[in-house]
Fold:
Amino acid sequence: MLKGKRIRIRPIEEDDIDLLYQWTTDEEVNYWSSGAWPLNSLQTKDQLAEKYLDSQPDSYRYAILNEKDSLIGTIGFKEINVPSRSATLFVVLGDKTCWNQGYGTDALITFARFLFTQWNFHRISLDTWDENLRAIRAYEKVGFKVEGRQREARFVLGNYHDAILMGLLRHEFLSLHGKL
Ligand SMILES: CC(C)(COP(=O)(O)OP(=O)(O)OC[C@H]1O[C@@H](n2cnc3c(N)ncnc32)[C@H](O)[C@@H]1OP(=O)(O)O)[C@@H](O)C(=O)NCCC(=O)NCCS
Structure:
């Protein structure tokens, strides 16, 4: 269990699957997280459980809990590059009532510290799309910097949008937030 200021992060459990499935079929959550609505919703609950519970070779997912120990989202990393000690991070607060209250930033800082100090990563990447200003702002508060823009790389509800590529180095994170 990882402890942030207000959130906790733990492995995903079987009892989480019903709620995770509800979020997968939520239009607004999907709109912001990937622009992939309704594509994401075309998964069965079994397929989702397999994705979240079975160990996957290059992807690690965890549950984010609030102060009341309720599940509010997921966070994880993928695309691990061992020699360069880098990975790509992803986060979604599926509980919309928790947006804009600092939970996402708290989870990101807590998880980034875990990746830099326990997994010994040197660099973390992530990406989003140009209209997701809340995500960009949260990432910037953690210390991520915009490193690039892929023109019209995302197709969201009939329109092409730029993908925003961001990155954070270990020493930048530690100088902003410290080890503990
Ligand atoms: C993105 C996400 C993880 C951020 O977590 P959060 O808890 O909502 O964010 P926080 O409250 O920690 O920080 C949000 C910041 O964005 C700001 N913000 C919100 N809407 C904004 C907007 N339209 N324009 C600019 N800034 C905005 C907030 O004011 C806050 O900044 P501040 O603390 O300086 O005031 C969460 O909202 C989420 O999961 N959203 C849906 C899925 C998603 O977008 N996932 C990311 C995919 S790349």
User: Anything to note?
Assistant: The chain has one domain: 2-177. The chain has a mean pLDDT of 93.
